[in-house]
Specification:
By secondary structure, the protein is of the alpha+beta class. Strands 8, 9, 10, 11, 12, 16 and 17 form a seven-stranded mixed sheet that branches. Strands 36, 37, 38, 40 and 43 form a five-stranded mixed sheet that branches. It is globular and about 100 Å long. The chain contains twelve helices and 45 strands. Bound molecules: (dicuprio-$l^{3}-sulfanyl)-sulfanyl-copper (RUQ) and dinuclear copper ion.
Length: 764
Amino acid sequence: MKVNKKRALSLLTGAVLGLGMASSAYSQASLEDVMKARGLTQKDLLAAAKTYTPTGARDEYLAFSSGGQSGHVIVYGIPSMRILKYIGVFTPEPWQGYGFDDESKAVLAQGQIDGKDIKYGDTHHPAFSETDGEYNGRYLFINDKANPRIAVIDLHDFETKQIVVNPFFKSAHGGAFVTPNTEYVMDAAQYAAPFEKGFVPLEEFNDKYRGGLTYWKFNDKVGRLEPENSFTFEMPPYSQDLSDAGKGPSEGWGFTNSFCSERYVGGIERGRPPFEAGCSQKDTDFMHVTNWKKAAELVAAGKVKKVNGQYLITMEQAVKEGIFFLIPEPKSPHGVDVSPDGTHIIVSGKLDSHAWVYSWEKIQKAIADKKFEGKDPYGVPIIAMKDALRTQVQVGLGPLHTQYDSKECVVYTSIYVDSMVTKWDYCEGKVLDQLHIHYNIGHLVAMEGDSASPDGKYLVSLNKLAIDRFNPVGPLHPQNHQLIDISGDKMQLLYDMPLPLGEPHYVVAIKADKLKPVVRYKSGWNSRADKRSEFRTRAGREKTVREGNRVDVYGTVIRSHITPEIIEVEEGDTVSLHFTNLERAQDETHGFAMYGQNVNLSIEPGKTVSATFKAEKAGVYPYYCTEFCSALHLEMQGYLLVKPKGYKAKAGKASEGTKYTKADFDKQVKTNVDTQAVIDSVVAFITSHNYKDFKTVVDLVTDATDQLGFAAEAKKKSEGFAAKGDYQNATLWAGQHWQYQVKTADLGLRAKTHLEENGAKKVK
Ligand code: RUQ
Ligand code: CUA
């Protein structure tokens, strides 16, 4: 090997050297010294050891948290509590190009309400798709409470694919909850409102305002909800709250609670006591029990009428068919959680200190025997509490939600007022342990806690207030997600994770190895529609097509250039940019940002995205790649030239910024020869080892081969110009040749390092 390789690779080695430079005040100290200096206890160290995840190590679980009013989803690892991704759902997410490219704008437009763009979502409850009650790792659903909508996120690429708007409700809190084979996604209304669109006076609350529960039909094959095959149960205006689907013996049924069965309408300014007073008068509210399997049969038999384009099962019909019942539940209840085996349902009353355990066997018997204690004002049969309840257990003040452990009968309930988690046994009806959290816990999540076979292990407590837990950052503090070890008899608090936005309501956590996200898209992929894009472009086929006032640019991006680099249009043209990322390499996303046009794209390997805008004003609009994709990333740039109408180009050629001679050309060629020697030696190393046994290396080699292919083309062009004595172009193309070589060498060295660090064997 020649010494000159150093010049060629100085950029690369710099990155390698950087790794060894970390140092800290504690770097020379012993563990005891660090503990003393930072005031850490043995218990702290134990907690740290349970969460600390060294570089390169992965998390056992991935948690998907609602982003609250941010309208997105946050993905983090457990037990490290490292945030891995934000997924744009109901709101634009610029870094993801979500809401900025035409393809994702189309998804957000599905969420319009009466033609109005809704620019936020109040995301509440994420839910995984299931097979036989087990998370299958394919889809995630999440609801928007404020604008009753459900979104579908495909976990093969962590992108939002669909948003559906509820045709009846004006708010919806009780979603998303899935049936055991993801036949349906449940979403219950919250604040009662007329099902029709127009004005209905509050005086008609009891007669015209309605609650409800929608079962959204999910088509597992295409990964989309089908509004036309979905149905909604009309329900009394009782402020339906959370829901859960039955499992095992209770499969086919759904459970939904409510918190204002008083049907109270406040109005402080009208001299009426507020909602909070009137909605908490009665000692009990109602759990709503619905039979979705029978309802689906009625729909299939053509017995259900469509209203607003969706099947609506009226209360009258539901009562007649025996598919809708009510059961009293504790005062102002909140969570309703079906046990993994489907035999019990636990409901907590926010204004009660008990959790109530219902027996499905008893409920079923009451239904079969038609044993009711009466009917509500809408004629819905009420099952007596004693005919449904198994036991009540005192768990603490303000119990909300319950999660199931892997151990039979063991559950964890969040206790809002007392700021704690209560571990208890619902079979024996006794409290096992209590742990204080900081502060005012809402939901809590155990690993795979909503599935038919929860894993236990960890619990995350989603606290509403953080108060003094973090450095103050203004009056609004971060949210506090606290990680708790639940593997032993006693719960142990491990870690506080601040989430800097409000208010993340609920989290679901899945075993990480169930997720199989793709590394790249099939080339030219429209990821939002899940099909090849009609605008995809291959290398060398880039073109600009004008039709009247419309200009379509079919371009590509690859390290480190955007094709085309100069786009010329006329003032008033509608410009549609379509870019395909030609990369096959892992993580080689290119961004595309343009001055003053609100264009910001994220183009992952294989993806094709479009941005359409009107070039209203003549001017010069630079554009560039926003991801630091390679050493020559800053040079990944170009210009949109918007010319005034009827503009005539001035005669004459622009003068070159720098002129090149034969000496420059020769110097560049020599560098290229030296670089090639480095590449050859790296290639020799790789091919003399069992590199095919390493997937990462195979991917790197594929990418390097691509780059080297481009290098050959550039070399040919360079030699062609040199033969004609055009050393200006010959030198520039030789420089481009070198750019491709550097990328190839970069990849090759990464592959070599990987082989060395992972004990590759010499094969020849
Ligand atoms: S809720 S804190 Cu919006 Cu799920 Cu209970
Ligand atoms: Cu592509 Cu920077």
